[in-house]
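S.,

As promised, the adenosine-5'-triphosphate run. Input:
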Amino acid sequence: MSLSRVTVTAVRNLHPVTISPSPRINILHGANGSGKTSLLEAIHLLGLARSFRSARLLPVIQYEQPVCTVFGQVQLADGRLSSLGVSRERQGEFQIRIDGQNARSAAQLAETLPLQLINPDSFRLLEGAPKIRRQFLDWGVFHVEPRFMSAWQRLQKALRQRNSWLRHGTLDAASQAAWDRELCLASDEIDTYRRAYIQALKPVFEKTLSELVELEGLTLSYYRGWDKDRELQEVLATSLPRDQQMGHTQSGPQRADLRLRLGAHNAADILSRGQQKLVVCALRIAQGHLVEKAKRGQCIYLVDDLPSELDEHHRRALCRLLEDLNCQVFITCVDHELLREGWRTETPVAMFHVEHGSITQTHDHQE
Ligand SMILES: Nc1ncnc2c1ncn2[C@@H]1O[C@H](COP(=O)(O)OP(=O)(O)OP(=O)(O)O)[C@@H](O)[C@H]1O
Ligand SMILES: [Mg+2]
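Predicted complex:
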């Protein structure tokens, strides 16, 4: 699965443009502020209907313009073509279209266009709040386990009921017990999917990491959000007074986390910046392999400023792993000399020069 055409209008400083990317490696190079990250942001908008830079979409719309739009033609794994379009008006109207039809939700986009983003914010996967690691985990589970979404929705509903009851106590005991049962069932189901996912991810992650960087003793483990030896029902019963005091449920899958440790230490506390970047890349590349294995099409990788923090040896190792993924990859960099060489001759590499918001294709390996 890859984007065979992308049309961008009024996203940040980009002039209206249509590009025909290579199905494999695409390198966007240009000076600071030229618009490289903006193009990745446009593709991200197409896959997730949101930006990775601003919580709100308004700053993405070009100054003075009423609406920004991104269209993409996607070549699906089975060879069919699908067209996606997202547009966001300054007034707040958001539209998602898939094959000419208005789409119900952004989840449908995510299903068609699984994106992996590696950018300077990716460090937060190691050092940020558990929520970021849960999102990472659930992205993976969502793309390999079709039953996950409905279990997750059931959990959210049951949790809302319970938290509202904890705060206001407006539900009778029998109804609340029924909601708690539903909460526990959905939680166990989610835990099963997440656990199976981590079991599959771990060996792929370890292999990927070993090809990138030597970090003896780095371990990845999963915490499910409550005591591993007790049933959630029992945990909820014992923590009820505290939950009531806090006004929300303290234990459950909404508290799950991934732990990355190096020996006795939290990896984020001791790894260098470059090492952290490589660990995050290994995690994200491992996820891509699992999506591919689950035959749900491949992901598209957006790698913003690939060379930063990396020495030549590690930069080459990362490029090789991205190349071996057999995915479409969009890479940005300031100095394209760093990424020009080293690709296999059979890999189609397209290069785009970004200058003051204009994008020109300078090199296409296929030609
Ligand atoms: N809504 C907007 N409308 C017009 N221009 C914008 C808007 N938002 C940001 N810009 C400008 O767009 C330009 C492109 O920024 P972008 O982050 O894409 O650059 P870049 O090529 O990734 O640079 P760097 O190498 O520094 O990361 C910047 O000069 C920025 O000031
Ligand atoms: Mg940038």
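Residues 36-37, 304 surround magnesium ion (ligand 2) (CB under 6 Å). The chain has twelve helices and 15 strands.

- D.
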